[in-house]
Amino acid sequence: METLAKLQVLSGAARYDASCASSGCRREGNPYSTGNTSQSGICHSWSDDGRCISLLKILLSNDCIYDCAYCVNRSSNPVERASFEAREVVDLTMEFYRRNYIEGLFLSSAVMKSPDQTMERMISVVETLRTEERFRGYIHLKIIPGSSPELVRKAGLHADRISVNIELPSHESLKRLAPQKEKFSILEPMSLIGKEITESLVERRASRKAPKFAPAGQSTQMIVGASPESDFQILRLSEGLYRKMNLKRVYYSAFVPVNHDNRLPVLAAPPLLREHRLYQADWLLRFYGFTATEILSDDMPNLDESFDPKTAWALRHPDFYPVEINRADYATLLRVPGIGVTSARRIIAARRFSVITPEGLRKIGVVMKRAKYFITCSGRPFEQMERSPLLLRNRLLLGDGGEVTPAAPPKQLVLPGLFA
Amino acid sequence: MGRYLYDGTSEGLLSAVAHILAGEKDVERVTLVERENTLFEEGVYLATDTAAAEEFFSRLQNLASEAVYTFYYFTMAEKGGLETSMLRYLALALQHGSKVNGYLTHPSVKEIVTVSRKAGRELHRMKGLLRFEKLQDGAYLARMEPDNNIIHPLSLHFSKRLRAEDWFIYDVRRRTAARWHRGSLTLGLIEQFTAPALSEEEKAVQALWKTFFGTIAIPERRNPRLQKSNMPMKYWKYLTEKQG
């Protein structure tokens, strides 16, 4: 098979991996090598689904011995199979990089003969890139669950970021939909990676020559909507991953049905809004000082479809507001709908110079459409109104001129008989 | 109430600002505009004093290094009519240091920081969207038409990244070019540009990239609006993946 045909098969098979980050590590180039990495990451293009393209995202092979229900590459699917030679991936990466198409390589693979055999082949691609081609651009390497600790360590020494996909939000779902993948074969490498990253940071503090281990950190991904877990379960899982395993990112991927399987739900469309709300909640966990139990609870296990999770929290906690813009601290400002990390920082910076007026708030870039219901400026509220939660809900949904109508009931997921 | 004129260059702007700040007490009552050379133009013309501009620049570097970046990006925007705001911004920078960019509630600071941030954003964007093509002699060529005059910092970025290659970046609208040849960077004007012949394998590599670009999108998630908002159509002209 020609490289072009292989690329078609193996990039098509890789597109369900959500991560495309190229940020989080800065490596200078040198006169004899090609490439460097940028701390902020660089997006090089945006595909027709609007997602950014930063890395050459491909599988080494889609020829899989596993038969996971949700996966397009599962062994029982009659799809065209292809595998790259190491040289082909290396040449593609270098040719694309020199033309500034990409920031680097994101290499994943189906499990060919065994996890170790697959992992070894993936590492040899990356080794060739780093040593023969002296490539110093970004590399994200997927870890195949069940590969040996030595290979995981080797991967972390060559790659900027490594990731193990957690695939599904619970042990039960994993057992049902991916029977050949064991929970421990996923979690074990994750905690090993977490440990290695921490150790390498300690060693590098002692000596700058100590090798870097996955300097851009570890991430993971799970499919949302293929199994019955609630958003609350998912967020608690993510919270645990961030806190205990020190992950940089958890990616959520709206379930796109690619197979017919009676273990899978039948959906009219991928649950994109749910994925979006989960990302918003994820941001609240990482940058806004929220905990999972503040965002959701057992009584309210799923995110509101009509409001972003911060606005939803604000509506449930009317006592917290109004927040005084000219006095509130950073953590309090962050709880105001319409004020994000950037505006909160700007508010604090601008307060050093003068009292902030409503006009000033607009200049700073606060989204007044949402914020105005929750703040005062030098003691003066923006909206002279009764702050009844129902009225507030409707104003936020419909704007100031809106009629008071009950919110539409949230859309239910359509699940097949198995879950009913 | 002073009204001053300068010659429209960034050096002239800096030397004019230095002169005004040395003499005027209240910059909020001063205006500074580019000279238009009309017969009855009102205002005091301040001739460019290179030494004064340099001295002011190094003073700024010491007192407010952030403001130096802001000024640099501001000049890339090539936006006229904001000299008075720049004057007031720089006066505040000398007074408050690098923190000045946080004074967004001040109209002049807001204006200058916004323009400069926009140029910085386009620079970052072009670091991703620039496309090189391999030429017959083995060198690479990239063409672009950015809104801001970013060729200098952009070529510095690639001089660190693609050090082993020889390449050109050509700003089609401004007719300026950056050339990286055997490890050294030169910038210049190109009077007459003729597109050189591409190398033989170039079309094949471009076909690979177009294939990748097409298959990496998830059909069920098609979202052209999001694509255009992230990657405005004005940049598509030179994007390999968006050609026929």
Walk me through the structure.
The complex is a heterodimer of chains A (420) and B (244). Chain A is built from 15 helices and eleven strands. With 420 residues, chain A is α/β, with parallel strands linked by helices. Chain A has a six-stranded parallel sheet. In chain A, strands 9-10-11 form a three-stranded mixed sheet, with no helix packed on it. Chain A has a two-stranded antiparallel ribbon with strand order 1-2. In chain A, strand 5 (138-142), helix 4 and strand 6 (161-163) form a beta-alpha-beta unit. The longest helix of chain A is centred in the middle third of the chain and has 24 residues, at 183-206. Chain B is of the alpha/beta class and 244 residues long. Chain B folds into two domains: 3-122, no CATH class; 130-242, no CATH class. Helix content of chain B is 45%, strand content 14%. Chain B has helices at 10-23, 50-63, 65-76, 83-96, 107-129, 151-161, 202-215, 224-230, and strands spanning 3-6, 31-34, 44-45, 132-134, 140-144, 167-171, 176-181, 184-189. In chain B, the strands form two sheets. A five-stranded mixed sheet of chain B has the order 4-5-6-7-8, covered by helices on one side. The chains are: A alpha/beta (420), B alpha/beta (244). Chains A and B meet through helix 1, strand 1, strand 2, strand 3 and helix 2 of A and helix 5, strand 4, helix 6, helix 7 and helix 8 of B.
